[in-house]
Request: fold
Amino acid sequence: MRLSPDEIALFAVGPWTVNATLVFSWVIMALLVGAGALVTRGLSAGASMGRGQNVLEALVAFLLDQIHEVTRQDPRPYLPFVGTLFLFIVTSNVLSVVPGFEAPTGSLSTAAALALCVFVAVPAFGIAKVGLRAYLANYLRPSPFLLPFTIFGELSRTLALAVRLFGNVMSGAVIAAILLTVAPLLFPVIMQAFGLLIGVIQAYIFAILAIVYIASGTELQERRERTRAKENA
Amino acid sequence: MSDIALIGMASVLAAGLGIAIGGIGPALGQGRALAQALQAIAQQPDEANTITRTLFVGLAMVESTAIYAFVVTLILIFANPFWAAVAP
Reply:
């Protein structure tokens, strides 16, 4: 049985095989960029606005609100990264109901790439916010003896992030394929609808976990500074 | 019994048992977390947003265990390292 769209090789460019994961990733990117460019062409600052602008504003406001509630910080620095993750995954998962479309998030390589982005973004945001020294000092808290566990925790949560997304999307596709052979009339439709819900929730979980991890790299430092300021006062 | 049949049988059995037993713990844990969250929402409907978000994050953490079992099962069935040793 085919487990991931990686195994569908569409054509080859020189020594590289272009598989369905790559092609559909680019389709999603083109869709997102195209829709964004189309909507933002005629922006209005007044009370009357186009439908597209309304949707985008609601989406951005929702994301800003969610990020703010998790981090309790100014959400704007995190919006581009987390918002992109959310939009990419949610588009990919929702489009999987289109016949012939294979969700690229159902491939372990895409999921691992997204998780690696988070893995790199956590120290990047942390260092940008609190500086290299303070960020590295976070690893030695509460005790330097826990350093191996902290490092292992970072690695294992990246693995879990990747496999969670891959496992959920892939199992949805596999269950749909199995049901098609067992009970092809109505049941797969119900499972597809259920898969839509799972896909959106997984995208939400991925984005929320990313922002939780990023926040954990920046928050500790702030809290310590606050208590120190209180002690000095 | 030939080596290949033995390995196949053991892998399939272990995969089935692995995902079954590996699913029990997280299922119980997630059910408990969900029940507590529902209770909390019933008591404090105003905090529903915060509770729901925390619930999702918590469920994702609990789910990790099940995901590890799932990965091992997938490896056993689709990427079993012992196949290469006996494959004709």
In short: The beta strands of chain A are 9-13, 16-19. Chain A has one domain: 5-232.
